[in-house]
Amino acid sequence: MKADPAGVLTGAHYLDGDFACGEGAMAAGCRFTAGYPITPSTEVVERISRRFPMMGGTFIQMEDELASMAAIVGGSWTGSKCLTVTSGPGFSLMMENIGLAVMMEVPCVVVNVQRGGPSTGLPTMTGQADMMQARWGSHGDYELIAMSPQSPQEAFDLMIDAFNLSEQYRVPVLFMMDECVGHMTEKVVIPPADEIEIVVRKFTKDPPGKFLPYRVNGTYVPDFARAGDGYRFHTTGLTHDERGYPEMSAACQEVCVRRLIEKITKNADKIVRFDEENTDGADVVVVCYGITARVARMGIDMARKKGVKVGVIRLIVVWPFPEKHIRELAKKIKAFVVPEINYGQMVLEVERCSAGNAAAVCVPHGGGSVHDPKDICDAIVGAAK
Amino acid sequence: MTQVMEQTDTTVEEHPVAPFLRMDRIPHIWCPTCGIGTVVKCFASALVETNIDLDKAAIVSGIGCTGRVAGYMNMDAFHSTHGRAIPFATGLKLGRPELFVTVFSGDGDLSGIGGNHFIHAARRNMDLLVILINNFIYGMTGGQNAPTTPLGAKSSTMPYGNFERPFNLPHLAASCGATYVARWTSLHIRRLTKSFREAIKRKGFRFIEVIAPCSTLYARLNKLGTGFNLMQFYHDNTEIRHGADTRDLDIDFQGEITCAKFVDEERPTFLDMMNEQYKKTLGDRYVPMAPEGGMYHE
Q1: pLDDT digits (tens, 9 = 90+) for A329-344
Q2: Do A54 and B287 touch (CB under 8 A)?
Q3: Between chain A and chain B, how many beta carbons pairs sit less than 8 Å apart?
Q4: CATH classification for the domain delimited by B18-285, as one of 1.10.10.10, 3.40.710.10, 3.40.50.970, 3.40.50.10800
Q5: CB-side exposure of A161: number of CA atoms within 13 Å?
Q6: Could you tell me which of A273, A279, A352 has the C-alpha nearest to residue A310?
Q7: Does the structure show a pLDDT above 60 at B5?
Q8: Three-state DSSP class for B98?
Q9: Is this complex's ipTM strictly greater than 0.90?
Q10: Quick one: which of A288, A342, A277, A338 has its CA closest to A318?
Q11: If you average pLDDT over every residue of chain B, what do you get?
């Protein structure tokens, strides 16, 4: 279906990444947002709180991030598309209820405009050190989806994809921006509403009484019933059967959790997304995402001028990771070079998927600024030897 | 010669509140003489008597013994995370404003780990009915100290007697802005049911504390006998004082428990205030969320 024009600010704008992200959410049909102020993410909810009253949306500033995350899990059960926005410290507080969203299978989008950590770290300065927290931060075994935009335009575009994927798979989508993209102001073109494709979760057609909230009929994603439509369903964060009733047994755990994982892993080919360039015949492939993908450009150009054959994989969907593709590529190249604003997170995944067939070289940066492109160039040249 | 047997009707008459419960989940997990079941029965009776449309009703619990209540109620029911029932319920209410949303949880869940949400939801006058069962202890995890454990009472983490001052919950709720505040015990089934009935019909943040026995842990650790002895204690040691000053409602160990309705006033809810402010400032440009929510229709 097409986007509701009420939420779409069609035209060419000059926006920062945070505002673009908020516009993307509203264009995607988000109509309930709960958040708590935290730098450098707050502009997203400032934008939304200004525009929501004109499109039938409700924003509430909650008392903390625990409450914000819990509120959007509750809100999503009404069928609304829901969003919360935060940065590192708040992301940590949201982890438990992100797990609840995974377990209850409610669509929702969580924006993390990453700053330097750990703890309070560098509140106003950039970082990319929450990438593994996005994957593993909540307790227990699970899979979810995470994306990383490299520009304000992409913050808008990907936000629509984030909501669509979340609705399609009934899973939280973590939108892993960084402070640089969040506070960078660039041209953002917002298309007309009838050019924006919107996905909504599959609502059940079963009548009340026949409906089971976690029955999947051979698929991976159960149909959804919203609160207040007479289904009188039950849902819980406990391990549950297809009725949504708690069942404390290893057998039920296996059925319940395996499906939550396979829902993503078995559909990974459809979800995985990356840009690829010049990897054919490359000796070195740079794997990058977010602002670092743009910084790496210059380092790659410098290395090419020195005669190194360099390809690029830019991760757009970060989780699930393009495992198959990296595995294949590893057999053809000498090394991957992974610049990221942390001391080595996604490089671990690259290394795992390379399985010893290619080296995985980390170009670390502690945060507070972006890489010096020369460091990336040096790593590429070193890896090509 | 055939003998005609007179057929006897063997169908069991359905309990009046059965349609309000998930009978396929009964028996429940609560211990013998636990007070929670009685409170659930009073709540269900109040729902029957007020003709609430259960299709438009939702109930949210957190974690703990009382946290299991949502699981037994036959309406849209949400067993959320520890302490987060109130913000979860806030999301339901704001996502679909026509819903009647009840939060039903325990003292540890709502006033311990979830205390911050409790005070803020009361401050906002969020349109929620909050039922808190206070058994003075963390029951599910084995009788640890709660923010409600009376001074001197023993718990499994205060084995020499509690030395932390407990909350006076009606006072906390009232001082934060709750528009309906009452306290009863699980012995006061008639008055409690009436209080539920009243609160169901009101709007805003309505808070009802129900003192209930935990004979397995609280009574055992404090050598207070059985659940029956605790009910007898409630019978002999509660005083009903309507409109009492909420500052005077502290509960001492085995001291007198003051019950009654303490606050019953009307004030605009969060949604009333929000709608009014946006109408005032935005005029015709304001598009309120539809009562059935901001869902995208296919």
Answers
A1: 999 999 999 999 999 9
A2: yes
A3: 177
A4: 3.40.50.970
A5: 18
A6: A279
A7: no
A8: coil
A9: yes
A10: A288
A11: 95
